[in-house]
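Figure caption, in words: inputs first, then the predicted bound structure.
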Amino acid sequence: MSADAKAETITINVDGVDREVPKGANLIDAIEQLGEEIPHYCYHPKLSVVGNCRMCLVELGMPMRDRATGEPVLDDDGVQKIGWMPKPGIACSTTVAPGMHIKTKSQVVKDCRNGVMEFLLLNHPLDCPICDQAGECRLQEFATDYGRGYSRYTEAKNVKPKRTRIGPRIMLDDERCILCSRCIRFSKEIANDDVLGFIDRGSYSTLTTYPGKQLENNYSLNTVDICPVGALTSTDFRFKMRVWFLKAVPSICTESSVGANTEVWSREGKIYRITPRRNDAVNDTWMTDSGRALYKQVEADNRLRAYQVDGKASSFDAAIAAAIAQMKQGKTAVVASARASLEEQFLLSQMVEATAAVRVDMVSHYGDGDHLLLSEDRTPNLRGALLTGLINDLPDARLDGLGKAIDAGEVDTLFVVHEDLAAAGLTDAQIAKVKVIYAGIEENSSSANAKVSFPLLTVFEKEGSFVNQNFRVQKFHNAIPAPRGVVYDLHLLETLRAHMVGESPTRPTVPAVWELMAQKITCLHGLDFRGLGDLGVGVDAGRFASLPFVESKNLKHDPEKRSKLGVEAGATA
Amino acid sequence: MAIKEHRLIFKNIDVEGYTNDIACYEKNGGYADLKKAIGMKPEEICSEVMDSGVRGRGGAGFPAGMKWKFLDRKSGKPIYLVCNADESEPGTFKDRQIIHKDPHQLIEGMMIAAYAIQAKLAFIYIRGEFFEGARILERAIEEAREKGYLGDDILGSGYSCDILIHRGAGAYICGEETGLIESLEGKRPYPRIKPPYFPAALGLYQCPTIVNNVETLCDVKHVVNMGGKAFSEIGTPGNTGTRIWCVSGHVQKPGYYEFPCAALTLGELIYDVCGGLLPGRSLKAVIPGGSSSKVLRADERFTGKLKDGSEFDWGIEDIPMDFDSLMAAGSMSGSGGVIVMDDTTDMVEALANINSFYAHESCGQCTPCREGVQWMKKVTGRMSRGEARMEDVELLRSIAGQIEGRTICAFGEAASWPVQSFLAKFNDEFVAKAKQQAERNAGSEAPQALETTLI
Ligand SMILES: Cc1cc2nc3c(=O)[nH]c(=O)nc-3n(C[C@H](O)[C@H](O)[C@H](O)COP(=O)(O)O)c2cc1C
Ligand code: SF4
Ligand code: SF4
Ligand code: SF4
Ligand code: FES
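Bound structure (iron/sulfur cluster present):
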């Protein structure tokens, strides 16, 4: 939303009080922005409106005008009369209008909600004790808030399929389904994969997939998020943990340069699931299934867990000493990474200076985009590497230039962040010619050949920020503690830099690094880490705006608007 | 028969030797009105229809001319005409007669209407069970096309429009106009929310669309024939033209009878036209406008004020058969399905039957109707099996109240009005039955009202 649109408000009257709401807003959204709630099931701000649950019924009225003259109709006190609609209306299909009156607390409205709750529970199995949704279930919540607390229903309940695997990651319990059709609309309207529908009718209506079809697209788990009840559950999360034990920490998806906003749900240092976090400038309320699985890298078999010198486990200090000794002999080249955070890239650039590195290379990781929330650039922070000056141009897929330099004897030591040298095109002979210092999350050909290896942390174990496809700087936070004995990536980089120039290392914090960055990097002037907020800040792409980035059009990215972007984003920042 | 029928729409129906082919239709003056219409300006026809005051025969009784006026003509999108031939309202069987016995009358009426609203394409949505009707219409359309009454360049006028037939698959809700439109688009017939999806603005394929009942479209032909003013003189102001009353139930001669609006009373219809009740029986109740309309009790007094300010005080037999009078009596003329019940009728059984129908036909889209209607069916089902509880009557009343006015489409009212009116008018019968059954079952295993705690 641009600054102007936000400024334009109108006055509506909610339960007798005049309130300011954004012009043109949906009534449910408008009330939510006032910090109140109109209970609803089927409405979703990012899907079409069908109005089927009837939970959002409110009383609606407009100031009366004389039909013939158009003059306001006044009551005895000279106040314009309100023409209340004879029947309650659904808020979800109502757009706010100047002077609109609504009642959300009247007896009629209470009766409506009470009635809908009673009806929804008639055939509901009430298996809360074994239901994964318990604790974040709208049916539970609204039953408590608006239900009558007991059932008048003594008839037999409908029986429907309890466990249908409707896709590789999704289990459906039809008895719990309240037929809100959110999942159907999501599949059709957002995922462009129309596989869900209802069969049978009336109270026997049953959600299912079309014959021969499965809900298997890479967005299928969003249906689990938006399902207001426990009808759709994730087979990955099912029966693993009660949601009220979980702590949710805001984070950013590292799957691609989209930088979907996420929440990472953990308990006692173990992550149980990742869900999308709403950001209308980035991912709306969605994310990919594949992005949700990335927490598994925390406990992956190939995780690099210990500091190593010459293939043997060592202490942090010994590894630092070995690395410094190595880098002080001869010429060092650096292979930087677009998977590192902005702060890490910045400290790396300082280390590059300190080591007087002969060259800095980077490797691109491109794949097919899906024009939605998986972009062609499969790294979260290529733009960060540009802003911090680590690179000036887009990287290649292979390190051929570096290979030539090695062949020419221009490099003695390679400091590699994350990258797999063999996979990036260096030959065994080339790798053998140099001493490798590797810092990364995983074991790979680089660590296998390394003189010194430093384990790095996953995005879940640290904080920092990434710059996404639209030059939006977004922060992520510590969700779980780092593995025992492993220092923060920033600490490692600062220690190496300081030792190279003979200073004593500080323990850099992210806000502290930001103070430095904000001075050094023009487009970050005036910004600080806290100021990024939960939704991030767009920054001026400056001269990089015209680079031929690989991202094609997707949900929130339009290459054609790219050059304009710098200007707009700069304004927002 | 004491009172003579005035057959306008049914003029040729059941006439000896009248067949449903085009030759017979043309011999009887058919398609002359289309020719006349083509010579008029479309707006002229619209204003004739407006002047005629003809109200929709499908249920709601909305003036057709007004509906056409609401058409969004500025959008630049194609306009569609849809004939609602889903005729599924229990007690109604008039449209089928037109389709089977005089299909060209409908086609002529449709083509006039299509020309008047400048429709690009017209559809007949016919209920799935009318397979014979669909076959007849297909043939009739073929015949009409050969003669240039529909298709390209109709009668050399430069106006082109075709009619497509779409068969339903056996769901009552396909008669609700927005459900019908969804079905026509190939989807489940889930009625749309209004606003914003008023067919006249956002109908078929989100284009402006007029949906009219079979009989209404036939009326359009007669409006052109006699002129709007002459048509409006049939019946009474606001209740113009004829109505075909489909009488069923406990009368000697059930069937369809066409009369000008307000030309006779309900009593005259039952006793004079339909030959009265079976010997030895007395009248108990009448559902005057299809199963959705509210029931009238035989010994009720209907009092109040009419639109023109005059007061009325009617017994059931005095109620004039027209839109406004039946409305004033607290019910409606609906689709014209008059269901007569004599003193042998068990009102609990009758309501259980109606509830079963609505529970079976609810599309299931919106919560109150989907769950509430089935619940009502289960309760009345129990009552008819002898398993009622004392509190069931109040419960039924409360459920119906939780449905009415809170649903997406008027099915919610169609299903709750019968319950509300049966309970309002025959409360004692329901209470007595509940009491008797509850007492008999006391102490037995029959379900008792339990206040199960949920949370
Ligand atoms: C549940 C329901 C069922 C309906 N079924 C029919 C029907 O079978 N035939 C019909 O003509 N109208 C039916 N209607 C009315 C239509 O929605 C619509 O009002 C009518 O077709 C308009 O035509 P008219 O103005 O010519 O009456 C039904 C309405 C509801 C709410
Ligand atoms: S969906 Fe909600 S109310 Fe239903 S069983 Fe699960 S937690 Fe309980
Ligand atoms: S499965 Fe969930 S989202 Fe889908 S219709 Fe049922 S309740 Fe709604
Ligand atoms: S009222 Fe009944 S028939 Fe109409 S949309 Fe709702 S569920 Fe369907
Ligand atoms: S939110 Fe479901 S009807 Fe409005």
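Chain B touches chain A through 43 residues (CB under 8 Å).
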